[in-house]
Amino acid sequence: MLALVLGAVRARGAQALTVLVLTALAAAVAAAGPWYGLAAASRAAASDVAHAPAAQRLVSVRQITGTAGDPEQALDAFTDVVRGLLPVPDRDPVRGMTVAQSAVGEDGAPDMQLSYREGFCSHARLTGECPARAGEVAISQEAAEQLGIGIGDHLDLAATEVSTPLRLRVVGRYTMLDPAGAYWSNRLFRSDDGLDPAFTVLGTYTDPLLLEPTLTYDVGVPEALIRGDGGYDLAAALRRAEGAFDDAGLRLVNPTGPLLASIARDRELVRDGVLVALGQVLVLGWFAMGLAGRFTGRDRRGDAALLKLRGSTRAGMLGLAFGQHLLPMVAGALAGAPLGWLAARALAGPVPAGDRLLAGQWSAAAVGVVLAGGLVVLVAVDAAVLRLPVAQLLRRVPPGRRDWRADLIDLVLVAVAVAAVYQARAGEPGRGLALVAPALVALAVALLLARLLGRAADRGGGAALRAGRLRLGLTAARVSRQPGGDRVFALITVAVAVFATTAGGWSAGRTARADRGEAELGAQRVLTVQAPNRTALQHAVHTADPAGRSAMAVVADLASVPPVLAVESSRLAAVARWRPGYGDVATLGAAVAAAPPRTPGVTGDRLALRARHDGKGAVRVRLVLQNEATGLTTTATFGPLRRGEHTAGAAVTGCAGTPGCRLVRWELNRPEDDEPPLGARVTIRALTQSGPARPVLDAAALGDVRRWRSDFSGAAVQISARPGALTLAVASGAEQKVVPGNRVYAADAALPLPVVLAGEAPNGWQFGDPVLHSIGSSAVTVRVAGTASVLPVLGRSGVLVDLDTARRVAADGDLGGAFQVWLAGDAPASIVDDLRRAGLTVIGDDSVAARAARLGDQGPAMGATFALLAAAVAGLLAAAVVAVATAADRGPHLDQLRALRVQGLPAPAAARIAYAGSAALIVAGVLAGLLAALVARSVAGARVAPFTDGWDVVPPPGPLSAAALAAAGLLALLVLGTSGWLSALPLLRRVRGPRRSGR
What we know:
It is built from 25 helices and 30 strands. The longest helix is centred in the first third of the chain and has 53 residues, at 257-309. The chain is elongated and about 130 Å long. It starts with a helix and ends in an 8-residue tail after the last helix.
């Protein structure tokens, strides 16, 4: 039997090669699927881990306990218990201790944690010293400004208002290095609603006033465990450990849940994408093998008839057919599997070591399914032929009657497509048949169009022949009478539809990722920077880019309610990637332009104030200035002034030279303290400077009431202005039940603060004046200058404000938010170095391209890439079948054309007819495939879901754009046309040969 099989394979070399090629294509995709799926899932998980917030990559154990006067021993004992229970490797843990306190002062008692944390001084930028002895603390720059204390001063902390305060000595001020990093991710060591924590050494906790601190133990989870390499389930391990921690009186804080859920979702999306694509290729591959077996089986019909005449049994003939198919299929599988592995590695990277055995097993199983299914199909085709009687096997003309079984199969496939559409439309697009609904709809359309094409070609060909249009008529007759032509047409249609739909979804996914990158970043490139304050940030950007065309200072405060994005409106159009949904880019700039004229700044080293005091007692006048380069404040104090006219001088530091200092506010205080001088009334008539000498406030500036404003809250100072004089009056106190204010600010910004609003206004705005609480130290009234459906960075909810206006309104108040520098797409490469030289520290660098590439590692994108590979292989399968169908019909077609040549048909016309039939079938199939793709998109509700988290702030593009449809059609036409042309070449050469007579 083996010799007989080998002889049959050698005798039918072209048929064996066809089976080998089809098997190799299908086996390549089958072998690639498991390797690609596991590698892509690991790659998506690695991307999720790398770009998740640092807090989601660690676990924390906490315990509130007494120290019994020995905090070090208590922390060591706590550590020993934690290490015995923690189910993850204990690498580089960070231990800490914190206790809730309140800062005791004249302005109330804001909450302030007293904390110890290992490695604090190496994770903070310190001005002064690092705490080294008990009772020494470092406080943040913001807390120092709010409390009004500096290095060397004392900080008093108390547990309650009636508790005895603990006096600590401030030895340094700190700002966090890498506040988004893992070290600072524990919220216990960050400010909540109060002040930033004060950090001290462990010895401070020996004080009996510090009762029952919270002990913490933070450890980062290894990336491999979070990814779940080798099937490890971190969530289950932590759930099992949680009970043991509870029994030990410890609290396990596990913030990894959202990250693990995202990883699981990515794995699910990759798995579904690979399985759907693999399933489609397998079905199309088996269908292609069946067609190839049907076409090549015409040459085996004579062999089967001869074997029957010689008395061979049906089982023996089936065994021979099985052997003939098995050898080329095994060879094809052996050739295709390595190609599939190489393709998977090139597209998704290596598989983690712990998953390689599993990938190999699944890959072998998938290739086995290809072989088994292909053998079943091919043997079934041969079995149907072997059932025929000898006389029918020897007929060269196939029967014209269509088998009822084919009609039944078509009807079943259409019914399955209807069920898939129903499931997709019923709200379950990610389950069951809904996953392949577009392909099934395309198949139903292909079957319908195949029937229409056959009838149209039959009737149109007859009409063309009767009308004398010989070439058209013969071509149409060729299409209608070619055996199996309807199935080839259906295969081409489905393959083109799948490729067009997949390519369109892949292209739309790329566009959606770029759109998301633009919407989340706001500019082509975004730097995250550190600067002392907003003024320093803005000045550094202007120093690096004085023309205002390449860089823009931005502050994003996403933690405030509502979120606030502060931008430089004058640079917005030149730098930002502005989308139509953001509204008019000039709206904010036009609203800001309505600000009052700005008061000239101070550039000297001494000031002189001419004023009159008409109130009771003495008053001290203080002028607060802010350096326009560094943002640091300085104070000039005049007086004390008693009743009458006075000219007082005061030295000024930190303002000499350009750009100098701007006037922030006037303060009226009692000489003995900083309390408001009740009943004071001061009229300012002039303010001049020396070094160089010039007026700072002239008659016009003092007399323009638009340039001055009182505080936004409390009992404000009364302001009145007349030409050449500004009067500030403090209430006497008897007329009101609250302490009156004593501050008057320079109103050098547009008020109410203009904003562009996205989404619904906050509820509080519906019942009162619109205000923002995140601009400065008190609520600021705003007005909505424009609205937008979406805003960059903020999404569908938030407000856009002008950075310069906001910092001027906030004066020297504390402002939060992340400092950024947006760069235009054409910004010079040197701009980053220029920003560093201007004083900024770059701690992050992101771009639209990098963000899109990062999103391209998520599950939907990785699944779409494999689907595109599988769809391309489906096109190659269709091209192979076209070649087989053309080659199989070459002999009868050549006989027909030679007969026509004998009857006088010119050689050029015969040549056109020779390839016109295949060309017409290919062109019709490609057009039908594009039509089927459009129908599938609309009927099956195909849509692009390019992100794991379902982000849809910017609506995703359509899954089948005109450009993608045209590109897919042209590429399919090129591949299929080349295959058909190459297969028709031998026929063309023979047809163009010399005319032969029929004798």
